[in-house]
């Protein structure tokens, strides 16, 4: 229905044809669709979030067994917010509660990768199948990556001396009415949307131009099946793009429709969200650079493997 | 009252400090507003999502940028 409305607007009302119509139609259709889905999904996730804050997650994870703890931590990563400026207190808080370093890393990997903005964009752009695959493999990288880091005896690389707390944390129940939760979720959605709508607009704008004017052969020759190094190159390119995820993802859609392979696209998007340079810089204040390098190395390798497996299957 | 703002220096933490100061101006009286940036000190309050708000040693909110009205309500309690 939305498609027909946009068609009516660009073809009948504005009288556009050919390439110009392609680009303008695509731009209007995609921008509004992504904006709508962003607001809806961020609202739903932030409503759920009013039931679990980070302090609650910590109390819940305390004393859980190793692999089970990794899985739970990765799952909680979907729902809890992540801001790189919170990485330090979060990391120290987990260590203080005697949560194993491997479980902590499962959470640190999953939380930014499975954030609500990335999920909303993926859902809006690629549909539910790719979204489920992205979340599923994202969780896998978080669980396995965290487990491996946990097995490597990395405790000596924590630079601050954290005193483990005695006893168990109390589970804090958050008491709020439905209205209060909805209000908070709405405020949060509004806050995020005002920050990222412009990136979506720019991303779709560039995408619309590529969609209408750049031939498919050009992109296919760089990022298609012909280039065996497309996946690692895509991962390296994704690292510095964290803050622009909202603008990068609409671009990826156009690239895949023009012949970029889906596994390459998936690796790129995971690298954008999971490997963030600002987060690494902040963590450097409390953990040794060697541990950060291992963390990036394991996650990077995992993402590259996923890309190759995907390109091979599809 | 002694108000402490827990935060490692992100934009939201600075904004919360400003709101706390505005709230103090509105209420009047003798209060102090202090910024706590040391991660160990923040951890000792059990706060993991910044910014955190501590009033007279008790944690009142974490991970949220409060509005002036919300801040005043917490301080009235």
Overview of the structural elements:
The complex is a heterodimer of chains A (314) and B (77). Chain A is mainly α and 314 residues long. Helices cover 75% and strands 0% of the residues of chain A. Chain A is globular. Chain A has one domain. In chain A, helix 7 runs parallel beside helix 12 (245-257). Chain B is of the alpha+beta class. Chain B has one domain (2-72): Glutaredoxin (3-Layer(aba) Sandwich). Helix content of chain B is 42%, strand content 25%. Chain B is built from three helices and four strands. Chain B has helices at residues 11-27, 39-44, 68-76, and strands at residues 2-6, 32-36, 52-55, 58-62. A four-stranded mixed sheet of chain B has the order 2-1-3-4. In chain B, strand 1, helix 1 (11-27) and strand 2 form a beta-alpha-beta unit. Chain B starts with a strand and ends with a helix. At the A-B interface, helix 3 and helix 5 of A face helix 2 of B.
Say which CATH homologous superfamily of chain B is assigned: Glutaredoxin
How helix-rich are the residues of chain B, as a percent range? 40-55%
Please provide the ordered H/E string of secondary-structure elements of chain A: HHHHHHHHHHHHHHH
Instruction: Name the pair of protein chains with the most residues at their interface, and give those residue counts.
Output: A-B, 21 and 18 residues
Low-confidence stretches of chain A: none
Shape of chain A: globular
Mean pLDDT of chain B: 85
Give the domain tally of chain A: 1
Structural class per helix/strand content of chain B? alpha+beta
CATH class of chain B: Alpha Beta
Euclidean distance between termini CA atoms of chain B: 12 Å
Give the amount of beta strand of chain A, in percent: under 5%
Number of helices of chain A: 15
> Nearest-angstrom radius of gyration of chain A?
21 Å
From the helix content, strand content and strand pairing of chain A, which structural class follows?
A: mainly alpha
Helicity level of chain A: over 70%
Please name the CATH architecture of chain B: 3-Layer(aba) Sandwich
- What is the number of domains of chain B? 1
Largest sheet of chain B: 4 strands, mixed
């Amino acid at each position: 229905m939305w498609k027909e409305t946009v068609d009516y607007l660009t073809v009948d009302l504005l009288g556009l044809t050919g390439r110009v119509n392609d680009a303008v139609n695509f731009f209007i259709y995609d921008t509004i669709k992504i904006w709508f889905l962003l607001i809806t999904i961020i609202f739903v996730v932030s409503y759920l979030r009013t039931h679990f804050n980070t302090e609650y997650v910590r109390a819940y994870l305390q004393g859980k067994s190793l692999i089970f703890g990794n899985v739970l931590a990765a799952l909680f990563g979907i729902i809890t917010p992540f801001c790189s400026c919170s990485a330090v207190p979060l990391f120290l808080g987990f260590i203080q509660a005697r949560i194993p370093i491997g479980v902590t890393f499962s959470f640190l990997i999953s939380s930014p990768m499975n954030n609500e903005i990335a999920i909303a964009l993926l859902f809006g752009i690629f549909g539910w199948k790719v979204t489920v695959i992205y979340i599923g493999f994202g969780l896998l990288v978080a669980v396995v990556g965290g487990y491996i880091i946990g097995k490597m005896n990395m405790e000596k690389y924590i630079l601050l001396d954290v005193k483990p707390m005695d006893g168990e944390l109390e589970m804090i129940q958050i008491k709020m009415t439905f209205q209060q939760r909805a209000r908070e979720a709405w405020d949060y959605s509004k806050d995020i949307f005002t920050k990222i709508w412009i990136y979506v607009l720019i991303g779709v704008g560039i995408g619309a131009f590529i969609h209408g004017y750049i031939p498919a052969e050009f992109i296919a020759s760089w990022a298609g099946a012909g280039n065996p190094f497309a996946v690692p190159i895509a991962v390296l390119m994704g690292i510095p793009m964290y803050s622009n995820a909202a603008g990068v993802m609409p671009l990826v859609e156009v690239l895949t429709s023009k012949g970029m392979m889906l596994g390459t696209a998936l690796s790129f998007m995971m690298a954008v969200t999971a490997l963030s340079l600002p987060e690494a810089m902040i963590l450097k204040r409390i953990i040794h650079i060697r541990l950060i390098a291992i963390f990036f190395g394991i996650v990077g390798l995992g993402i590259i493997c996923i890309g190759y497996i995907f390109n091979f299957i599809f | 009252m002694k108000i402490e703002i827990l935060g490692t220096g992100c934009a939201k933490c600075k904004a919360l400090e400003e709101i706390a100061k505005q709230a103090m101006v509105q209420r009047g009286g003798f209060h102090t507003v202090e910024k706590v940036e040391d991660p160990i000190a923040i951890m000792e309050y059990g706060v993991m999502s910044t910014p955190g708000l501590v009033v007279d040693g008790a944690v009142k909110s974490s991970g949220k940028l409060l509005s002036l009205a919300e801040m005043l309500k917490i301080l009235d309690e």
